[in-house]
Known about the structure:
5-stranded parallel sheet; single chain; elongated; Rossmann fold
Amino acid sequence: MTPLDYYHQQVESGVIFRDPEQLVVIQSLQRVHRDLLVEHAKRSGLFAFLHKPQQIKGIYLWGGVGIGKTFMMDCFYHSLPFTNKLRLHFHQFMRRVHNRLTEHQGEKDPLQAIATELSQEAMVLCFDELLVSDITDAMLLGRLFKALFSKGMCLIATSNTAPDDLYKHGLQRSQFLPAIQLLKTQTEIIHLAASRDYRLRHLKEAGVFYTPLNNESQQNMEKSFDVLTQGKEIIYSPIYLNGRSIRIIKQAEDTVWFDFDDICRVPRSQRDYLSIAESYHTVFISDVPAILENEKDTICLFISLVDVLYDARVRLVISAAESVQELYNRCQFIMEFSRTQSRLLEMQSQNYFVSEFNRDNG
């Protein structure tokens, strides 16, 4: 399977929409894919010991948020048939480099040793969201890129920033310029100038409130999480708020996913919800039940949670047993919940989440 085959497969299955600007990028990825297969055959063939690794020119894909850069890189990565490949978020990559620097501390040229290890692990390196803001990283990257490329590493990278604008106002930027030059010579620079935000398009069409609780709702939750987080590092360990541990389903940077029982059926305070609203722009809550008359603490916590998220203009994605109108009715706190109903309906509206996307993306 080639990147183009994978792309068409995703279009036909309804995961994405066909986009002519994306297809131009896919054609360039086709070229890299073809060249890598030829090079891989030479490195792993009968006379591999006679073959000097050749560096295949990669791709640096940059453009605005939400236009499918990560998805196209994943089309390329998943279509590669061999295992000596590596895909990381850029921050994950740099964390790995710093960990290995510690392991090689005291050696004459630790970056060469790290480059050797990485080249033995993979012949193609894909990393997402290349962004340089740390002076330590900036000072390392020029020498590290040079070492990696000298060992035949192919680089596929996505970024919101053109190469010439990386680390633009950083301290001692002159020492980072060799890294920029290497990116410009060792990768094809492609600007994806699409104006659509495919995350927003997905939410407009799929919605943000899924009912009833069935496999389709679960799949919609998973797909929405994947679309909104776009390949960011996913963490499954509990989070800590106000000194207490809260179990989560998963999180990725400013997006977090809770099960309803963990967020509204155990003792919580408004301080917990305020901390969530301060830390995350998008909150997923799955398996919201129809709340019974005797569940006074549960409905009060749910009302408080929605109020806090609404006031902070946090996006909310929910899977629930019933529609908003049927989640809680004819019970003691129905007057209080009527405001929550209104807010939940507004938080599903296009105007609400469009304004929040605009806020997040400047």
